[in-house]
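Hypothesis: this fold can be encoded by more than one sequence.
Test: take the structure tokens below, design a sequence, compare later.
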């Protein structure tokens, strides 16, 4: 098979949460364990850092990976979903997995795929762990998909765990309260392995404290101290404490990381890891920014940041997915913004006409574009130099920007 034929097989054969939603979510680790046994348990052959949370997982994973790279470690990085290419999910020192490895891996275990019928996420986790093992990484930074307790990545025994924060997202799978969601995220805590909280949240702290105490795991919570870096964009500020504390835990476990490595890694994470989609400037005049924020907690912070830097008009290009409650999202949209509703070309995306209709019922007016780049072109045709064009609401909307 060619690389594209291999990807077509994976997308067609295996249910993918990002495309079809909760029907792809597997509520146990059986398939992952079976796949890894076939591969001789590659996850037991490399060190790791494990990251869960509602928001900030991607930023934290890339930040910690960048710090380890600056410190001289051969560093694997597993994240999801991808923006432009499947190979973004699996990287070593910022370089995506080789296309040929993907082809060979799928061909080698194709009979097992037919037998086990794993999800798309389960097969990519197994692929990543096999790649990291064969490439002999010094350490891999592994981001969970959904939750933590039953997430396919939750078979590793990491050096340290990081839980970034807890918010109301994926409630149909993880639970309808912050405590229930925290319980699922706390599932990555392992016996005697230190765990870092990226944020202290009083209403769920007891969940993590009780879990850590039951497993004799050291629990560390951020203190409000001066930042080791200056002039950070919002997404780094929000996650810096967790990144720094996790790196310092690695120091305690013998990793040769310095405070300079931490500062440089955070500052240079975009170039070191090829991190995209977080408050990313697409062009300068008029300023156009893309951000993959897609839930209430993330969008609130994003809109606050956008408004704080606004000089002219805020032009919003917004799309979302079918399984989101719309009213909380509409509540956050700045009322003075000029809105272009849009949709991504994936089955899970909310049709733009339905989005526009719901918004109008709520009192939000805007035009609609079935294509993200059409919405961008229309925005640019009317924007003044001091306006801010913000593209957000869904990872899939950002992923379809042509010049991302």
């Amino acid at each position: 098979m060619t690389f594209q034929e291999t990807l077509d097989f994976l997308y067609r054969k295996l249910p993918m949460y990002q495309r079809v939603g909760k029907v792809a979510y597997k509520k146990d680790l059986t398939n992952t364990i079976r796949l890894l046994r076939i591969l001789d348990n590659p996850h037991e052959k490399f060190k790791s850092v494990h990251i869960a949370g509602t928001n900030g997982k991607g930023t934290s994973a890339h930040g910690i990976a960048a710090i380890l790279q600056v410190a001289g470690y051969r560093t694997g990085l597993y994240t999801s979903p991808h923006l432009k290419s499947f190979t973004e999910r699996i990287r070593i020192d910022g370089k995506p997995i080789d296309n040929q490895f993907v082809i060979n891996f799928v061909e080698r275990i194709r009979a097992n795929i037919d037998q086990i019928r794993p999800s798309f996420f389960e097969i990519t986790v197994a692929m990543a762990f096999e790649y990291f093992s064969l490439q002999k990484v010094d350490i891999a930074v592994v981001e969970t998909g959904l939750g933590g307790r039953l997430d396919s990545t939750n078979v590793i025994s990491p050096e340290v765990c990081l839980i970034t924060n807890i918010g109301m997202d994926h409630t149909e799978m993880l639970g309808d309260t912050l405590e229930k969601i925290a319980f699922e995220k706390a599932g990555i805590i392992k016996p005697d392995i230190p765990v870092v909280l990226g944020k202290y949240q009083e209403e769920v702290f007891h969940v993590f404290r009780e879990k850590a105490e039951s497993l004799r795991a050291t629990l560390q919570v951020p203190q409000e101290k001066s930042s080791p870096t200056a002039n950070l964009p919002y997404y780094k500020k929000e996650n810096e404490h967790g990144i720094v504390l996790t790196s310092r835990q690695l120091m305690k476990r013998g990793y040769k990381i310095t405070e300079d490595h931490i500062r440089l890694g955070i500052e240079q994470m975009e170039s070191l890891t090829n991190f995209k989609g977080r408050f990313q400037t697409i062009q300068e005049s008029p300023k156009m920014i893309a951000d993959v924020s897609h839930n209430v907690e993330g969008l609130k912070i994003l809109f606050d940041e956008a408004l704080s830097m606004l000089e002219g008009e805020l032009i919003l290009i917004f799309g979302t997915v079918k399984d989101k409650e719309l009213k909380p999202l509409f509540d956050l949209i700045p009322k003075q913004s000029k809105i272009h509703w849009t949709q991504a070309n994936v089955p899970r995306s909310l049709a733009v006409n339905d989005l526009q209709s719901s918004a109008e019922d709520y009192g939000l007016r805007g035009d609609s574009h079935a294509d993200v780049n059409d919405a961008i072109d229309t925005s640019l045709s009317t924007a003044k130099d001091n306006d801010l064009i913000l593209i957000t609401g869904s990872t899939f909307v950002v992923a379809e920007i042509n010049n991302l």
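Residues 286 and 385 are 4 Å apart (CA to CA). Residues 17-21 have pLDDT under 50 and may be disordered.
Hypothesis status: open.
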